Amino acid sequence: MGGGGQQTESSEPAKGDGVGPDGGRGGSAVYTWEEVQKHCHRSDQWLVIDRKVYNITQWAKRHPGGIRVISHFAGEDATEAFVAFHPDPNFVRKFLKPLLIGELAPTEPSQDQGKNAVLVQDFQALRDRVESEGLLRARPLFFSLYLGHILLLEALALGLLWVWGTSWSLTLLCSLMLATSQAQAGWLQHDYGHLSVCKKSGWNHKLHKFVIGHLKGASANWWNHRHFQHHAKPNIFSKDPDINSLHVFVLGDKQPVEYGIKKLKYMPYHHQHQYFFLIGPPLIVPVFFNIQIFRTMFSQRDWVDLAWSMSFYLRFFCCYYPFFGFFGSVALISFVRFLESHWFVWVTQMSHLPMEMDHERQQDWLTMQLSATCNIEQSTFNDWFSGHLNFQIEHHLFPTMPRHNYHLVAPLVRALCEKHGVPYQVKTLQKGMTDVVRSLKKSGDLWLDAYLHK
Are residues 329 and 202 in the same domain? Predict the structure, then answer.
């Protein structure tokens, strides 16, 4: 129901308003934030971008980034997320035009939920500066060289076996080189995935399919739909799939207490910092992710991604079957995945798991991202080891920024955080990793205390 004397939801649209494809009225209606916030349900979703109100109820099902990521902003102001995820907003606005049902009333503030308008404006000014200085433009040479070093690792691993045979030491060395190439390919596909947002015909989109499909055996669409949710609402329960621990772990400060009060004990959570080493790093890639990937490709009938994925396994077995046979090749890829999984878990979790986790709080983009992320100190090794994800803060604030520019924008982000009193955390690599275990132990202790005494 809108203000300004417009008709009610059940009445006929006023002359000239028209009814959009999603059942919304034309763009002449005006609404309050209170009215917009009522439309946050699965079957009734509105959102606001630049003070314009859109009915996305039906469009969400066709959203290229997936239904969930856009639905996470139902009933909210999605302006900052819209700008962050879409390198070419003008291209996307043509899809929004038919969904327009009105705008905010002139008396309504531009920000919802009492967000700090000055902070939001200052961050927008920073983004404008970033765009004007060309920091969102990728350098193809950088990524070409990076891809080259991954292919070189693969070629060297296979070449060693051809030249020297399959001794235990050479097989182990080959496994380490393959695990390194898989981890680095993971960081590279992560780059291409972010750079290919809304550029389905771009070179980076095609390379993303090649790297994640042919070089890693995974699915680009599965990764995009999962990972963009993480960026949209990091460390928010029920919205960030990266903290959906399926009752295996309790995370943060609130979830453990909630589980403890309800007397939920799916696992001995006060020991989770110990069993994490057994079921976290070793299994997430070779077991959990692989099951998810293939289940998603078949359930979504994503035959293109399935073909790319199968090309990886066909190439792998053609290369290594002559040396190890079928079962030996299966053992080799399993061991490579096992090693890669450890690398992946520690790099991704050291910047997120020890940070704040909560239910939806409708924070502004800067505050939300900074509360859920921290940086790891810059060094040549840390940059390479983490695929520049040691700059998680800058990556989350500007998800379409190419990684070679993170270090340039980092001082500007730090200055903005200092101005507004937003914590900007930087840790050593060792502290980042040990904090993962400390946070799990802290959460487990909170659960035990609530379970026994509340």
Answer: yes
